[in-house]
Design brief:
Blueprint (H helix, E strand, L loop, with lengths): L2 E12 L4 E2 L4 E2 L24 E10 L3 E9 L8 E5 L3 E2 L22 E9 L5 E9 L8
Antiparallel strand pairs: 1-9, 2-8, 3-8, 4-9, 5-6, 5-7, 5-8
Length: 143
């Protein structure tokens, strides 16, 4: 999978407790076209920007892990909006190579900043890491 360094949310990020991705992406503020009366609206989900969220180090000791796509107009994410969240993935599935089912920026992604949030259930993980970011396209021939 080809990742763009500027489009990474997590680069082999160790997830030992619930946490936000180490990086946030700024999609910019919508502007007002020349001679227009109002600014353009924004919905990044309509463009179907591909994302890949993959386990790169097998997890240990937690019960399950969820991943959420969050947006906010504040870079500090003081009032984050969870646009989409995966189901709880059990420990047995959280092995190196596992890919979460968020495959593109979801519809209704209308705020300026985007990030991922990892929610750990059960005890904190003693091992486990995720790489996540924008990709050119998602692989579809899983063998």
């Amino acid at each position: 999978m080809i990742f763009d360094k500027l489009g990474l949310f997590s680069n082999s990020q160790a997830i030992t407790a619930s946490a936000a991705s180490t990086d946030v992406v700024d999609f910019g503020a919508p502007g007002t076209p020349i001679r227009a009366a109002a600014a353009l609206g924004k919905d990044l989900g309509k463009s179907i920007i591909p994302i890949r969220i993959q386990i790169v180090t097998t997890f240990a000791t937690l019960t399950s892990l969820k991943v959420a796509w969050q947006m906010d107009d504040d870079e500090a994410f003081g009032s984050a909006t969870t646009v989409l969240e995966t189901e709880a993935i059990p420990l047995a599935s959280l092995v190196a190579g596992y890919v979460f089912n968020i495959q593109h920026v979801p519809l209704l992604s209308t705020e300026r900043y985007g990030r991922l949030f990892y929610t750990v259930a059960g005890s904190n993980a003693t091992a486990g890491a995720v790489t996540a970011g924008f990709v050119v396209a998602n692989q579809t021939n899983y063998l």
